[in-house]
Prior knowledge:
Blueprint: H1 2-10, H2 12-28, H3 42-70, H4 73-97, H5 101-116, H6 125-128, H7 138-144, E1 152-155, E2 159-162, H8 163-176, H9 186-202, H10 204-211, H11 216-232
Antiparallel strand pairs: 1-2
Amino acid sequence: MVRFVASFIMNGRNYCLLVCLIFLTGGCATIDGPSDPNDPFERYNRSIYSFNTVVDENVLKPAAETYQKYVPGVISTGISNFFSNLGDVIVVANDLLQLKFIQAASDLTRIYFNTTIGLLGFIDVATHMDLRKHHEDFGQTLGYWGVPRGPYFMLPFFGPSTIRDTAGLVTDSAYIDPVYGQLDTRPATAVVVVDAIDTRASFLLASTFLEEAIDPYINIRDAYLQRRRNFVFD
């Protein structure tokens, strides 16, 4: 399943068709009463949220719990650091697109020291050198240059997004990400699978609290939109 999803996002034409389908379906998916202006496709979004929840409960969450139980903490931390270092490639590219040259220099230095002294990023030496981790992606870059975020909607498998962030996801994955461009190889596919499990494991505690919420969907939506707004405006 992970290989299918990863390969699908790499095909920009197919993903654009998915986005169009979302809009066409969402346009018919009204809810009773006034809709939230941030979430005009709420009925559709809730159906995708339910689908993603089933996938998570039956695939990702059990894998993440097994991973957390049997992988020693020092190793899982190293794996998280490794993927964070790979992610810094996307950060640097979007630093430059946003003309944040000083931040780009800092993030590029992070990559250099974590890749060399930090053994391909498994040890985060850069943070201890006061080289702070930043978060930039093409969705933020579009927002930085004034592109409206568009309506909120849930993407199958990928979760919360907006029109702008979906465009950013496709662009980062297809043209910048150092792994997704190699998904025709088994090593790259294995890396994507481990990344997905490691990421899900890091949210196990948070998801426990989320499950106790009266309406987890609303909590996820509001938290996502607020977080993305904070990222765009630094």
